[in-house]
Amino acid sequence: MTGIEKAAFEETGYSYTLSLIQGKHKMVILYCLMEFQPVRFNQMRRYLGRISDKTLAQNLRELEADGLVSRREYPQIPPKVEYSLTERGASLMEVLDQLCIWGKEHRPRGQQG
Q1: What residue ranges of the chain have pLDDT lower than 70?
Q2: Is the pTM of this model over 0.70?
Q3: Which domains, ranges and CATH numbers included, belong to the chain?
């Protein structure tokens, strides 16, 4: 047995990275934090557009559990919570930045943004 017969996609670094950023909103959340951190929950919801509070909160919890995002809660009324990238999350930005560069270079001319 050689090559692909011995291989398992789940054991690759690519698979692990995808498991951290998969989903409709996680990469956009990380991009938002890269550009504007720290960011409050409502600011992020407005930036993302059509996302429910429940979905945003769930994505943020998952990113926090994976060590990519930190959550800082201020003891005040009304409550204030800010999100930032962790050092680990910031290290992923080089990869996501390459996606941005690729998109700018390969986007059809009529769709430049």
Answers
A1: 1-2, 111-113
A2: yes
A3: 3-107 (1.10.10.10)
